[in-house]
Amino acid sequence: MDNEKKFHGEGRREFVKQTTLLAGGLLAMPILSKANYFSGSTGVIKIALIGCGGRGTGAATQALSTKENVELVAMADAFPDRLSNSFNDIKEALGDKANRVNVPESNKFIGFDAYKQAIALADVVILATPPGFRPIHFEEAVKQGKHVFMEKPVATDPAGIKKVLEAAAVAKTKKLNVVVGLQRRYQNSYRELYKRFQDGMIGDMLSAQVWWNQGALWVKPRKPEYTEMEYQMRNWYYFNWLCGDHIVEQHIHNIDVGNWFMGATPVTAGGMGGRAVRTGKEFGEIFDHHFVEYRYANGVVMNSQCRHWKDAPSKVDEEIVGTKGRIYCDKAQIVDHKGKVLYQFDKKKENNPYQTEHDELFAAIAKGEYKFADAERGAQATLSAIIGRLATYSGQVIDWNVALNSGLDLHPKSYSFDAQPPVMPDASGNYAYAKPGITKYFT
Predict the structure, then answer these.
(1) Hey, do 45-184 and 190-348+374-405 end up sharing a CATH topology, with the first three levels equal?
(2) pLDDT tens digits, residue range 93-141?
(3) Contact call for residues 101 and 91 (beta carbons, < 8 A)
(4) 294-349 tens-digit pLDDT
(5) Cα distance between residue 258 and residue 264, in whole Å
(6) CATH architecture of the domain formed by 190-348+374-405
(7) I need a labelling partner for 258 at 20 to 30 A (CA). Which of 28, 70, 74, 264 fits?
(8) Which residue from 71, 64, 63 is spatially nearest to 45, judged by alpha carbons?
(9) Coiled coil located at which positions (predicted)?
């Protein structure tokens, strides 16, 4: 059965219903002329990069490494040093294709509103800022009629999810291609495993286990000249309004795989988490471990775990269990319940999915095709991770629909370096964090 028609959960049905109502109904997806896609007559696809950190630099390099006639024409970031470093790193990485970087100083935009100016100059926009800004950046790109590649996650709170859904509906009416950086969907081994799952090789799905367990991450020291807003933005990973916690920013990949094979989104999430190891004030307000039990409408359970503990074993993987066998995604292997190998993907045929997602997106744009509408799926995966965070923070079971319609908004009232972020340190520099059983979100 086609995955996009295989809705098991009330949560997903309600999610799709709301999106459809926003869109006024889905329109057909015809092949359009290139005139609908390019801003000039030369056939060059002009790219703007919004967010010039490591992932933005990588995404822009991959976009510029495609076979299509592409050119980076504009860049935007809150910080001039990030933009400058990214500009140089992209040119160096491209080597003999460095002439595809054509960003004069007048097209390098700095500040919280810089994205609007950069978007205006492009045909395709790469959105790679900290994910808290994704909803407003995506909304603006769609408003200006641009195709979009945006990194996951697509929001950090339910209010942001609603904004992304609204913009996704408009993108469909405008026939704008949107790809979200959940790259397992573009990876050869995962695609082959999924084909065999659809063909019934492991029977009906019984459960899923997903992991993103790894060691410690980076921290940027506070400098005397930083305002609180600048400090948090430079350490965006440790603040929920910017990052969503690592269950949202990182573990979303594995959660998305579970949803993909399930053909649905979870109805509820319950679990536990905390700050067992990463307890210092430099780690802001996020947890260092989460364990979530996701329940789907058909009774299937997905167990999810993620953690950041130094010197503990790492595991980033997904396991899909069926009535006739199981799938080990990292091994790219399918076995029956006696351990007999039913299918083994040839790792020599593996691709770089980070590159493939750009190859396929830009090939479609170059042909004038409307082929990709990932924004809704990206919002589904993101909200799945968000309800997991809300569950571990509160110690309560979180309902998908209650969360989606809650209006919960983590963001500041205004964006400037002098503005006050939504969470502030106490006199000792420590940040308040959630206490399971005490922190409440919904009644």
Answers:
(1) no
(2) 999 999 999 999 999 999 999 999 999 999 999 999 999 999 999 999 9
(3) yes
(4) 999 999 999 999 999 999 999 999 999 999 999 999 999 999 999 999 999 999 99
(5) 9
(6) 2-Layer Sandwich (3.30)
(7) 28
(8) 71
(9) none
376-392 tens-digit pLDDT: 999 999 999 999 999 99
| Three-state secondary structure readout of the chain | CCHHHCCCCHHHHHHHHHHHHHHCCCCCCCCCCHHHCCCCCCCCEEEEEECCCHHHHHHHHHHHCCCCCEEEEEEEECCHHHHHHHHHHHHHHHHHHHHHECCCHHHEEECCCHHHHHHCCCCEEEECCCHHHHHHHHHHHHHCCCEEEECCCCCCCHHHHHHHHHHHHHHHHCCCCEEECCHHHHCHHHHHHHHHHHCCCCCCEEEEEEEEEECCCCCCCCCCCCCHHHHHHHCHHHCCCCCCCHHHHCCHHHHHHHHHHHCCCCCEEEEEEECCCCCCHHHCCCCCEEEEEEECCCCCEEEEEEEECCCCCCEEEEEEEECCEEEECCCCEEEECCCCEEEECCHHHCCCHHHHHHHHHHHHHHCCCCCCECHHHHHHHHHHHHHHHHHHHHCCCEEHHHHHCCCCCCCCCCCCCCCCCCCCCCCCCCCCCCCCCCCCCCC
R_g of the chain, CA atoms, integer Å: 21
- The pair of structure tokens assigned to 173 is 């009416």
The two tokens of residue 227 are: 């305002």
Q: Quote the distance between the C-alpha of residue 144 and its chain's center.
A: 22
Q: How many residues does the chain have?
A: 443
Single out the residue of 224, 174, 225, 205 nearest to residue 373, CA to CA.
174
Structural tokens at position 251: 């573990």
**Structure tokens of 194?**
């999924």
Sign of CA dihedral 328, 331, 333, 335: negative
Residues paired with residue 227 on neighbouring β-strands, in sequence order = none
Dihedral sign from CA coordinates of 222, 227, 231, 232: positive
* pTM for the structure as a whole: 0.92
Cα–Cα distances in Å, from 327 out to 7, 277, 299? 21, 32, 19
The residue with tokens 């009906």 is: 204
Tokens linked to 185: 């969907």
Number of neighbours of residue 332 by Cβ within 10 angstroms = 20
Which residue carries 């056939």 as its tokens? 43
**Both tokens assigned to 23:** 């869109």
Amino acid sitting at position 16: V
